[in-house]
């Protein structure tokens, strides 16, 4: 997998903005009298992907699949167990915290809950000024005020809102402040970790539109971590589907939603309730729960719930293989003759 | 006679600063036996307060309930606490959103399912446990005889929600109130629980009041929909009718704000419809239409006169001054 996916820059002229190669994060479980390590949670277990400049890659999957852990490992909120993270041609996973500091400003982050991610004792201007001062982006007070005003314009909040406190704002407005803070360092990449999941329907639409506008306006790349597939389909360029710490499928938006090549993606899509009464759809209801990442199943991690599993799935770990241009899936079904592969159908032509 | 008739329900809360929060302000609706009615709306629209009011779970004070909630002709608001206890978990039961916090961590699953059975139906401990095993089988939990002795922490989120459903259905209720039953669950687990609820509805025959903010869930499960905004009902219709031709500008806005799965196949990304502005504060009495401050069709009339709920199409009511005129013009 890593050989085929790492050669991205060799295959294309322009190198990607971010490249992640075989990223792993295993959390030790301590137990017993002496606090010895008794096992590991294999939260992220060999994940590779890339994001181009100005592109949105969405990371989707159910709770516990490791999608947030990927985001946090990229931000170095904890050190990855192994693997490489390359930002704009430079490896950043092995840098010290001090060396990392100037690079941090190139990656912004927006978290899920705008109520707990803003310090209630700081005014909006202090919240936003902190990164600006940290990265030395303003020489004096006048420059700082100018930057603050520009940020407020970008996220469409009134300029005088900078002197207010977080509790004076609604959830949607707070999320705008979080976005402004993520933009304060003039980043190339923004990681949105379930950034719209906690918001109400009408506010969610406002924030989704804002993120799309900002991306176009500023040429931002985005890693959009979400479990909401309809929102993802609406705003992404490419999608990576995770299951139990591994990417099972990566594809451009239309290919993934139109003709998924992994049984898990197919089931996930069919499980989403659609706001159309009486819509005739084939639903694949997966039985059972997601297995524990402490002791993941052998072979293909999805074989315990897969409706198409056969003997080989229990023993061999499937590698990501290209099934269509740009579409990669880790499934043994694609080694079978086409007639026996239930996922062989191709994308319907554009309407 | 309808199974449940809610008439002009007003649930107000006194705030510490002497004001009044009108969480539910004059809500009327009815539920027929065996019917599934969904109440949709955004946070703070009063949908959960409505469900708590039906079961009289609102602490008084600071809460204040007025109006009437007639269940099989009996006004629940006039019952004593003792009479109410005989109804809760027996004739009317409830499934809450958060299966982690609504189960008691120190009691076994069997004890929690058996509690209602022993209280309401006078079963012995052994009979209650046998019935608990039966209920776990009904909600599709594998190895029920073993699970019945386990504790909530030993179960996954989806399993816990199945246990909640087993508890709610143990006494064969006539009305089941499900307050965001799948919101905390993953999509594949949500699909399992929705399938289970549909299946059980046919087998048990209980009426369901489903409280949710997810229009997808509404479309899949409900027969009739009530849309709430700022404590009031703004629209009510059969589910197919509501999704096909929403009459109220708020409902139209809600439906436009939700991206549909499969959108990338039909067209290139278009912008989502936004509803500008914010939900109004419920602390002040709103003079005219509750939605006026965010409505694209707002006029002077909307600011001053609250629109009445009118039948805009057969069995389709909406509270808007302008919805009908449009229909005639079109």
UniProtKB/TrEMBL annotation, chain B:
<dbReference type="GO" id="GO:0005524">
    <property type="term" value="F:ATP binding"/>
</dbReference>
<keyword id="KW-1003">Cell membrane</keyword>
<keyword id="KW-0067">ATP-binding</keyword>
<comment type="similarity">
    <text>Belongs to the ABC transporter superfamily.</text>
</comment>
<keyword id="KW-0547">Nucleotide-binding</keyword>
<feature type="domain" description="ABC transporter">
    <location>
        <begin position="4"/>
        <end position="255"/>
    </location>
</feature>
<dbReference type="InterPro" id="IPR017871">
    <property type="entry name" value="ABC_transporter-like_CS"/>
</dbReference>
<protein>
    <submittedName>
        <fullName>ABC transporter ATP-binding protein</fullName>
    </submittedName>
</protein>
<dbReference type="Pfam" id="PF08352">
    <property type="entry name" value="oligo_HPY"/>
</dbReference>
<keyword id="KW-0472">Membrane</keyword>
<dbReference type="InterPro" id="IPR003439">
    <property type="entry name" value="ABC_transporter-like_ATP-bd"/>
</dbReference>
<keyword id="KW-0813">Transport</keyword>
<dbReference type="Pfam" id="PF00005">
    <property type="entry name" value="ABC_tran"/>
</dbReference>
<dbReference type="InterPro" id="IPR013563">
    <property type="entry name" value="Oligopep_ABC_C"/>
</dbReference>
<dbReference type="InterPro" id="IPR050388">
    <property type="entry name" value="ABC_Ni/Peptide_Import"/>
</dbReference>
<dbReference type="InterPro" id="IPR027417">
    <property type="entry name" value="P-loop_NTPase"/>
</dbReference>
<dbReference type="InterPro" id="IPR003593">
    <property type="entry name" value="AAA+_ATPase"/>
</dbReference>
């Amino acid at each position: 997998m890593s050989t085929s996916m790492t050669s991205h820059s060799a295959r294309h002229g322009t190198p990607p903005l971010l490249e992640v190669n075989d990223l792993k994060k295993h959390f030790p479980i301590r137990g017993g009298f002496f606090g010895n390590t008794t096992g590991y949670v294999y939260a992220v277990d060999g994940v590779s992907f890339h994001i181009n400049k100005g592109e949105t890659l969405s990371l989707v999957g159910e709770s516990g699949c490791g999608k947030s852990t990927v985001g946090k490992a990229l931000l170095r909120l904890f050190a990855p167990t192994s693997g490489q993270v390359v930002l704009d041609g430079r490896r950043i996973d092995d840098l010290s915290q001090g060396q990392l500091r100037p690079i941090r400003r190139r990656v912004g982050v927006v978290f899920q809950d705008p109520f707990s991610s803003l310090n209630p004792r700081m005014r909006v201007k202090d919240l936003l000024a902190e990164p600006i001062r940290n990265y030395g982006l303003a020489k004096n007070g006048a420059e700082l005020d100018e930057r603050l005003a520009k940020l407020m314009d970008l996220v469409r909040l009134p300029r005088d809102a900078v002197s207010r406190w977080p509790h004076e704002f609604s959830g949607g407005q707070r999320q705008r402040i979080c976005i402004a803070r993520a933009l304060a360092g003039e980043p190339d990449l923004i990681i949105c970790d379930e950034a719209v999941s906690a918001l109400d329907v009408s506010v969610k639409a406002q924030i989704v539109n804002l993120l799309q506008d900002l991306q176009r306006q500023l040429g931002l790349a985005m890693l959009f971590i979400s479990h909401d597939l309809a929102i993802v389909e609406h705003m992404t360029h490419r999608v990576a589907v995770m299951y139990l710490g591994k990417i099972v499928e990566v594809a451009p938006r239309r290919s993934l939603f139109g003709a998924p090549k992994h049984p898990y993606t197919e089931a996930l899509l069919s499980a989403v309730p659609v706001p159309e009464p009486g819509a005739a759809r084939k639903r694949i209801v997966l039985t059972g729960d997601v297995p524990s990442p402490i002791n993941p199943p052998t072979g293909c991690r999805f074989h315990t719930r897969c409706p198409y599993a056969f003997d080989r799935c229990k023993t061999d770990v499937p590698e990501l293989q290209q099934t269509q241009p740009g579409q990669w899936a880790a499934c043994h079904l694609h080694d079978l003759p086409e007639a026996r592969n239930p996922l062989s159908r191709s994308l319907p032509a554009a309407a | 006679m309808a199974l449940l008739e809610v008439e002009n329900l007003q649930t107000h809360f006194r705030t510490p600063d002497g004001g009044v929060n009108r969480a539910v302000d004059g809500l009327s609706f009815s539920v027929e036996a065996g019917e599934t009615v969904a109440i949709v709306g955004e946070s703070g629209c009063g949908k959960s307060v409505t469900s708590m009011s039906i079961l009289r779970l609102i602490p008084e004070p600071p809460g204040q309930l007025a109006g009437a909630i007639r269940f099989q002709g009996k006004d629940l608001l006039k019952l004593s606490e003792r009479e109410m206890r005989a109804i809760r978990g027996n004739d009317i039961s409830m499934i809450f959103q958060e299966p982690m916090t609504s189960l008691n961590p120190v009691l076994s699953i069997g004890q929690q399912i058996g509690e209602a059975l022993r209280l309401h139906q006078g079963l012995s401990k052994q009979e209650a446990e046998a019935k608990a095993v039966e209920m776990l089988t009904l909600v599709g939990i594998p190895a029920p005889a073993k699970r019945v002795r386990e504790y909530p922490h030993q179960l996954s989120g989806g399993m816990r929600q199945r246990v909640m459903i087993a508890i709610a259905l143990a006494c064969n209720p006539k009305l089941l109130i499900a307050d965001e039953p799948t919101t905390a669950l993953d999509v594949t687990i949500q699909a399992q629980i929705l399938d289970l609820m549909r299946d059980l509805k046919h087998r048990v025959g209980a009426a369901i009041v489903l409280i949710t903010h997810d229009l997808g869930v509404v479309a899949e499960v409900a027969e009739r929909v009530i849309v709430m905004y700022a404590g009031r009902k703004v629209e009510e219709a059969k589910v197919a009718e509501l999704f096909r031709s929403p009459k109220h500008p708020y409902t139209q806005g809600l439906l436009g704000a939700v991206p549909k799965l499969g959108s990338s196949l039909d067209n290139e990304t278009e912008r989502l419809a936004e509803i500008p502005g914010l939900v109004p504060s419920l602390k002040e009495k709103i003079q005219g239409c509750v939605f006026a401050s965010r409505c694209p069709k707002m006029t002077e009339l909307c600011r001053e006169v609250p629109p009445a709920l009118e039948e805009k199409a057969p069995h389709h009511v909406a509270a808007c001054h302008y919805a009908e005129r449009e229909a005639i013009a079109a």
